[in-house]
Amino acid sequence: MMNEQQQPTLERLEDTDLTLADPADDIRGRTVVDPGGEEIGKVDSLFIDHDERRVRLLQISSGGILGIGDSKQLIPVDSVTGVDEETVHVDQNREHVARGPVYDPDLARQDPRYFADVYGYYGAAPFWTPGYVYPRYRR
């Protein structure tokens, strides 16, 4: 198992020079809903594993008005169960996500356990652990 110092660096897509291979895979701006169809928020950003160039986390923005006062939670792509033209479906309920880890850029840079804690909150194995398989979801 990778130790904390060996965890890959995750970066917001817009903070890199990377682009998505298929623009249709860009789910930013889509509404995120829980298994009961309740709206959680919108996909605000995608966190990329720069080494493997895969999306690892979604940044979900909720609340606030025009982006002011909104909350930004992170959720692993492992929670995505489906994607359509306007919606991203996840296997977590709205209340659980709302209580989840809030994105803190300073903490993410300084605390090597930060992303492991995000995965742990959602009960997902971190992508850097042995045997991890990238999730497949219905499109």
Automatic annotation (TrEMBL):
Q: Which residue stretches belong to region Disordered?
A: 1-25
InterPro entries attached here? Bac_photo_RC_H_C, PRC-brl_dom, PRC_barrel-like_sf
Coiled-coil segments on the chain, per record: none
Q: Which residues form the PRC-barrel domain?
A: 24-93
> One Pfam family of this protein, by short name?
PRC
The record's section on PANTHER family has:
BLR1072 PROTEIN
What name does UniProt use for this protein?
PRC-barrel domain-containing protein
